[in-house]
Design goal:
alpha/beta, 11 strands
Length: 468
Amino acid sequence: MKAHVKVILFALSAVLLFLFPIQQATGLFKFKRLYGVTEEKPKPQLSAQHWLDNSFQANAEAYLQQHYGFREPLTRLYNQYLWDCYGLTFAKERNWVFVSDDGWYYESDYVQEYYEGCSWKFASDSLQMANILGREALMISQTQQILDSLGVHLFVLLEPGKELIYPEHIPANTRYHHDKVFSAHDFLHQRFEELGIHYIDAGEWFLRMKDTVDFPLFPQTGTHWSNLAAMYVADSLIRYMEALGDVNILNFEIGEKFVRTKEPDNDLEEWLNLMRPLKGEPNYYAKTPIVKDPTAVKPRLITIGDSFYWNILNHAPFKRIFGSVPYWYYFSTIYFDGPEVHVADIDLLEKVTGADFIMLAYSTPQQYEMSNGFAERFLMEWCYNKEEIAPLKQKMKERISNDKPWMDGIIKKAETIDVPIDSILNMETAYFITKRPDVCFPALGDSVPLKRSSKAEQILTQKSRTDE
């Protein structure tokens, strides 16, 4: 009997000894992926030099920490232990996720927006923030007026944050210490009215219907509006575009709701990477059949916005309703328009003037950078040829170089972070141009810029011929 026990123990030891490297090498068992962003560590290359300078050992350890066998279930098991015993996980400990006493989950940006606002990330005081956003709103207005003359309809969707709709569940403040003196959402709402910018304030709408709907507008364990709420937003967007463009667009129905959780309804829960699901209110979903209408057209819609739009694009039938729906995510990467490319690499004027609708869509913390540079770049390229832009940027760089207090600050920063002075100077120039393009490019200071680049003249000529 003892011999059998020894054999069994030896066999189990052998299995445990070799199972982990076998899983690492073959991926024999498939597990649910871990959520979150990690910097992928490259597989270390063994060489005499790497061995002697100890870089191989350090790189091998970092690589194995990311790629050892059974990493996913073991990580979730450890997180579950921390959660059950101490109410902690890596995401919560790093203040990425905040949890209220009544079990509601909020992303850190939205907790900060509630308690102190996010203006402190972009400006030193409320007056500076108002100036920055005021210029941004003016550029959006200028862009809208130019595009209106071309038959392209620009509008803004002010998306609500979870903190705006459900402040009663917001976790207690343990981190933020500034007083909230500025709200981008409130400022833009007023400024858009003054400038006549086309916009929808979904936050205002959500607040009005919050107590009358029979489903959550934001999920208990998610950061974005619920998938069901997003479908109603999508329906309203179509009707708004029909009125704005005086055009008939396909509509869709929202069927009976049923309990179902689909991404991203529980995205904050997923960040915790636990073994067991959290307890919470149910999430709902509904089917969205398209209403047949042979007289409807399929316009081209470009959306520039944040991650809230994924709910709409993935769960409402926009891809079948519109002729094209390229998504310029944070005015950086373009999705759903062929191979993924960066907006820096496209002919912006051609793409924008070839669309029927342009939507800017950002939630409350992201509204401090409302168009992520879209309006600035559009106006710059509409008014100036490429060969004119570089000298004006160089002139701004020289102006900064000749400003002694400004340059002293740049030198100090370069020394502090051990970066070449010219690199910091270039960054400072680019940043200033982003915040005050009208200083570097005088035409952008006009209410409606009259100066036109050769590309803009070409577009206007083609439109004139088409109209004839």
